[in-house]
């Protein structure tokens, strides 16, 4: 607001118009559908809402959804950092192809990804066959859900980190070394803190994406552990709209607070930039 | 001897960056590595630091061969051209970094950081982050950080390249004072000959990976060991002469033949201050028009054009300019008081470059 009130000259005018447009657009795309969701839920009494929202089946689904999404996002944050590091730091044949492959999960229909993964990891599949020998089952278990969520979330971490990694000068590492820091210390004390805001951004994007994921999970999820979006779908099939909405609202509120927490963490990690 | 390089060579693939370089830096000296970019000076500095390994030769610090000692263990302070501060750490944490690595007790770290902040004029900025500082302040933090663990050698790569002209002058003076105070052996890289002359005790001049000359600023200016040094340090007018009828000549300018055969070439060079000018047309032997006057403050740079179209550059103090009552486009007379022979018949005779020849006296040859 201050930029609009102060009389500072700006090359591109139109703060009022562009803010108005932004609010109208955001309302149309995000706020109105969200409002409708809450409105629909308000058809239920508080007691009815609580009963549906805290039913055993619903509670179990929240645990699976948020638990798997969190584990997948953590694994993505670690492995994505490594991937981004390799792509940015080293020059090797096929680097461009590898770089291009990172975006693949963005483009692939998630149902196709789910089907493929389920086939691969099924006890008779190419990978599942070998895992089966050592007694590990992935398809139709919670591990399967996590594998699917890792697949769809990895590009977010890599793409958030790449520009930041490219910005880190080699001189900074040399400076740390000239002051006596070992490679490990240089990484943990100098490089990692600089990457942390971008890692957290990637983490929160991958986490948010994983919470909402449906298409790929339904093919690989076990019968007994359903994710919340699946539960919502079942309710809709039973024409229980308020029931579906109630669970959706809970999911929305939890997601909202989780994302705010991650954002605050991110602000704290990037305090050196302000 | 604090630093010694013995027959150091460095090749990057097929490219020879440094070729057979040897020199010594005494304890407490302030030495400049000077040369055009790509001359190998930064590579030499990085090899002293251990950031680069020499292909051949030995590097000694305080008499110990350090070729196999890693950069972490060499106990050097290195200041990078782009500062390379840790942007996620405050100024105080940047300075304390090396001390924490060396596991100094906390109280001693705090004392040392406070001492350095004061010494470097950074009082009250300890809690700031690097991006909140000016260029000059960042540079000082970078130097403070490198000096904090009390290194035996301080190495600086183009330390004042990234700050503006006025701050650069301040930082130069300040580096000289700092060096007087701490007397830590210091080697810095620069491509600015004025900076090298002003700041250092001795200058090591590089070109294309070779060490061209090493000496005190006055020595390399007055007794350059070859044409490259003569042209690189200060301004040098160069004339390509041809010997005809026993005199070396370029248009109307004539010089003794210096024993060069008839029809062969002779190259000479002279400093701008060696040109004497007068508004009295009869005073000196040559005529010229004062084509341009460039005002540089205390000094003026003049461009003379002779009747045959030769252009010569000279410098004159402002007071002298006013005393002589000169104006642009005026006819003047001039002579070249002294000059050096750079090469004869295409062969460079390095030892001769350092010899200064007096020009023939007034009237001769007219």
Structural overview:
The complex is a heterodimer of chains A (274) and B (366). Chain A is mainly α and 274 residues long. Helices cover 77% and strands 0% of the residues of chain A. Chain B starts with a strand and ends in an 8-residue tail after the last strand. Helices cover 26% and strands 35% of the residues of chain B. In chain B, the strands form four sheets. In chain B, strands 11, 12, 13, 14, 20, 21 and 22 form a seven-stranded antiparallel β-sheet that branches. A six-stranded mixed β-sheet of chain B has the order 6-7-8-3-9-10, with helices on both faces. In chain B, strand 17 and strand 18 (311-317) form a beta hairpin. In chain B, helix 2 (91-101) packs across helix 3 (106-119) and helix 2 (91-101) packs parallel to helix 4 (135-147). Chain B is an alpha+beta fold. Chain B has ten helices and 22 strands. The chains are: A mainly alpha (274), B alpha+beta (366).
Compile the SSE list and pairings.
The complex is a heterodimer of chains A (274) and B (366).
Chain A: H1 2-5, H2 15-41, H3 46-53, H4 56-89, H5 95-101, H6 104-107, H7 110-121, H8 128-133, H9 142-167, H10 170-178, H11 183-212, H12 217-220, H13 228-237, H14 241-269
Helix pairs in contact in A: 2-14, 4-9, 4-11, 7-9, 9-11, 10-11, 11-14, 13-14
Chain B: E1 3-12, E2 15-25, E3 30-34, H1 41-49, E4 56-61, E5 64-65, E6 76-79, H2 91-101, H3 106-119, H4 135-147, E7 153-157, H5 165-182, E8 185-190, H6 193-199, E9 202-207, E10 210-215, H7 217-222, H8 227-232, E11 237-244, E12 247-250, E13 253-256, E14 265-270, E15 275-278, E16 286-295, E17 299-305, E18 311-317, H9 318-324, E19 331-336, E20 338-344, E21 347-348, H10 350-353, E22 357-358
Helix pairs in contact in B: 2-3, 2-4
């Amino acid at each position: 607001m201050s930029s609009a009130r102060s009389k500072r000259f700006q090359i591109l005018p139109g703060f009022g118009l562009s803010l108005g447009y932004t609010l109208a657009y955001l309302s149309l795309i995000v706020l109105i559908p969200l409002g409708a969701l809450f409105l629909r839920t308000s058809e239920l009494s508080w007691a009815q809402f609580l009963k549906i929202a805290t039913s055993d089946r619903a509670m179990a689904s929240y645990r699976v959804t948020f638990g798997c999404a969190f584990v997948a996002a953590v694994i993505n944050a670690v492995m994505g950092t490594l991937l981004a590091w390799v792509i940015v730091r080293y020059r090797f044949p096929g680097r461009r192809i590898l770089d291009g492959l990172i975006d693949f999960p963005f483009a692939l229909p998630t149902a196709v990804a789910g089907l493929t993964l389920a086939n691969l990891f099924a006890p008779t599949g190419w990978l599942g066959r070998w895992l089966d020998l050592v007694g590990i089952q992935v398809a139709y278990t919670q591990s399967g859900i996590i594998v699917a969520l890792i697949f769809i979330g990895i590009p977010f971490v890599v793409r958030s980190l790449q520009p930041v990694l490219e910005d880190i000068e080699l001189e900074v590492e040399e400076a740390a070394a000239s002051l006596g820091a070992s490679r490990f210390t240089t990484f943990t004390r100098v490089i990692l803190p600089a990457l942390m805001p971008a890692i957290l951004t990637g983490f929160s994007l991958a986490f948010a994406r994983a919470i909402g994921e449906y298409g790929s999970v339904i093919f690989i999820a076990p019968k007994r552990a359903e994710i919340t979006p699946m539960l919502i779908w079942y309710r809709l099939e039973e024409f229980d709209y308020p029931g579906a909405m109630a669970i959706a609202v809970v999911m929305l509120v939890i997601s909202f607070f989780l994302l705010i927490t991650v954002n605050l963490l991110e602000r704290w990690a990037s305090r050196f930039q302000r | 001897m604090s630093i010694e390089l013995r027959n150091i060579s460095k090749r990057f693939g097929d490219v020879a960056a440094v070729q057979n370089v040897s020199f010594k830096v005494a304890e407490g000296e302030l030495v400049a590595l000077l040369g055009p970019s790509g001359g190998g000076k930064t590579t030499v500095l990085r090899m002293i630091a251990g950031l680069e390994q020499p292909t051949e030769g030995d590097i000694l610090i305080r008499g110990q061969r350090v070729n196999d000692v890693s950069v972490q263990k060499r106990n050097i302070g290195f200041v990078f051209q782009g500062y390379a501060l840790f942007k996620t750490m405050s100024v105080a944490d940047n300075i304390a970094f090396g001390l924490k690595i060396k596991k100094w007790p906390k109280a001693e770290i705090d004392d040392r950081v406070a001492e350095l902040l004061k010494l470097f004029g950074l009082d009250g900025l300890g809690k700031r982050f690097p991006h909140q500082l000016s260029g000059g302040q960042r540079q000082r933090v970078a130097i403070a950080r490198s000096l904090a663990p009390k290194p035996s050698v301080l190495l600086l790569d183009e330390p004042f390249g990234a700050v503006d002209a006025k701050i650069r002058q301040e930082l130069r003076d300040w580096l000289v004072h700092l060096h007087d105070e701490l007397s830590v052996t210091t080697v810095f890289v620069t491509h600015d000959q004025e900076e090298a002359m002003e700041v250092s005790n001795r200058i090591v001049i590089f070109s294309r990976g070779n060490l061209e000359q090493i000496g005190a600023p006055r020595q390399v200016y007055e007794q350059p060991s070859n044409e490259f040094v003569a042209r690189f340090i200060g301004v040098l007018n160069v004339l390509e002469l041809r010997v005809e009828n026993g005199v070396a000549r370029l248009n109307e300018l004539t010089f003794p033949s210096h024993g060069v055969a008839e029809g062969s070439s002779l190259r000479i060079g002279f400093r701008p201050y060696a040109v004497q000018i007068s508004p009295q047309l009869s005073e000196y032997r040559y005529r010229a028009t004062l084509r341009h006057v460039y005002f540089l403050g205390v000094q003026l740079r003049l461009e003379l054009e002779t009747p045959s179209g030769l252009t010569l550059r000279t410098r004159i103090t402002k007071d002298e300019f006013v005393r002589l009552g000169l104006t642009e486009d005026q006819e003047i007379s001039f002579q070249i008081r002294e000059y050096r022979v750079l090469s004869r018949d295409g062969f460079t005779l390095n030892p001769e470059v350092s010899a200064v020849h007096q020009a023939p006296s007034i009237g001769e040859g007219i």
